[in-house]
Amino acid sequence: MNRGILHTVVMLCLLVFATSCSNFQKLLKxxxxxxxxxxxxxxxxxxxxxxxxQLLEQVMPLMTGREEAExxxxxxxxxxxxxxxxxxxxxxxxxxxxxxxxxxxxxxAMFLQAxxxxxxxxxxxxxxxxxVTAMESIQEFLVRYPNSQFATEANKMxxxxxxxxxxxxxxxxxxxxxxxxxxSAVVAFTNFLRENASSPYSEEASYLRIDAQYRYAVDSxxxxxxxxxxxAVDFYQAFIDQYPDSRFLRNAEQVYTSTQSELDKxxxxxxxxx
Length: 274
Known about the structure:
- With about 270 residues, this protein is an all-alpha fold.
- Helices cover about 75% and strands about 0% of the residues.
- It is rod-shaped, with a radius of gyration of 30 Å.
- The protein starts with a helix and ends in a 5-residue tail after the last helix.
């Protein structure tokens, strides 16, 4: 394509864009509700969600009591969702199904509210309050619509969020281990294992608890060491009972051997305790 043709194409595109913007601005200033609503639907079908959103926002308050009001509100909520404005879409979808609980779109609106909150859930390193809120919303949806066409996806979303909370709890416990606060690490791993028994991180947490307890015992005052080494032995026994083929088994056995060695030293130094 030579420069002349390219220049012409660019100018035509700019002209079309300018005309489109001019028409849209006229629509925004118009007092014709039906014209605005019709244009909003056209923009929506073209996936121009920003312009559809702007027009629907203007006409919704003027459509109260009209048959089209229900569809307008659902589409308005969805324009926020399509633009990834998830907190806004969550609010608008909830408003929709509370306003129109018998609507044919109420089920989808409730699902999309939950999905909006799911999409807004932050990475596991951040505060997970909104993740818990999303899980509660998904549970509410599944209770109300247990046989929904969206149930499979909703269950998967719930599992994803649950796994995120698992990882958050595990990493929080492991942080104590990494900074060598072994006493707190043991407590945190124990709480994690009690509250997240089926977590994919439970096996590693169980191993790290053994090692943390061993290290805690090593750093303890002499008159507390035997008791704390024995706790490491108890943790090892629980670990091998539950994970006999664990990928951490060799490391756990090394910690156990070191623990027994320390206990043997204590008995030699304190024969009266034998």
